[in-house]
Amino acid sequence: MEHKVSSEQSELTELFRQRAGTSTASSEDAVLGLVSELRKSANAKLGQVPLDKYLTLRNVVEVSYCRDLGFDAKIEPVGNTFADGFRIAINRSASASRSRFTLAHELCHTFFYELVPEIKFLPQPNDPVEERLCNLGAAELLMPAKLVKRESKGHHICLKTLEQLATLFRVSNEAMAFRLNQLNLWQVEFSSWIKLTNGKFAIERTVGGGTKDWEWPDASQLEEAWTLGRPLAGHQFLTRQDDLGVLQARPIRFDLARRGNRICMLWGRGVTGSDTNCDSLFRSHGPKRG
Fold first, then answer.
1. Domain housing 76
2. Residue 47 region by backbone torsions, left for phi larger than 0, else alpha for psi between -120 and 50, else beta
3. N or C end of the chain: which has fewer CB within 10 A?
4. Is residue 274 part of a domain?
C-alpha cells in the first residue's frame, strides 16, 4: 500500500523516511535510527567518541571556521555523489558548545544526501522539516536519550544541575534545557537576561516557552544577583501587557545566578535552588571529553 505524504512532510523527507528502512515509522524514527547506527559504527558506548570520528564516517572531508559568515553554518557537497564527500563551514563567532551542536546538525544533512540524492544534489531552498529532523538527530548524537535520562535521574531541577549536564555533554545550557524538555524529563524554561541602559532587565534569549515579552517587575532581586554575584531562588510574578493594554501576571518558581554579563535563569515545575543538595554529576562512568 502506498504511504501518503502527511501535511507535515515534504517530498524530500517522505522519500527519506521510506528509504531509511522504516517504511511504517515516522521520519523522526528514521533519523533517530540512523544516528543510533552511526553511534554503533563509532563504538560510542558512553558518548566519549570525538565528533571528528562521526564526521569521518559520514564523508565530511573538511571543516572550516570562518569569520562574518552571516549564518551559523552550511554544508556543501564536494562532487555529485555522497562518496565524493562534503565540506562544512562554521561561523567562528559562535561559542564552542554552539558550534559543536551546529556541526552535528550539518552532519545529519548527509543522511538526506545519501538517501535522496536526486533532490539534495540539486539547488533547492531550505526544507523546514529537514532542518527540524537534523536538530533532532544532532540532539540524539550529542545527548543520547538513554544517557540523559540516566545522568539526570535523582537530581534536583535547578540551574546548577542544568549547567553540570551541559558541561557533561559539552553543549550549551539552551540545548540541554531543550533536550530535557524534549524527553519529558523536565518541564522548564531557561532564559538569559541582560541589563538595559535604564536599569531594567529584559529577556535576551529563552528556551522552552514563549516568554520573551514577559518582564521582571521587581529588579531588586536581579540587581542583587548582578552586583553581588549571589544566586537566588524562590517565587515571583512575571508581568506583561497584552494587545489591549491589560496587565497580565504569571507566577513562576525560579533559580537564577549571574554568569558573565548576563543573568541566567531556570523556571518551571519542580525548580529548586541550586544550593539545595545539588550533587555533582561528574561520575566516573559518565561521558568523557573527546
1. 11-142
2. left
3. N
4. no
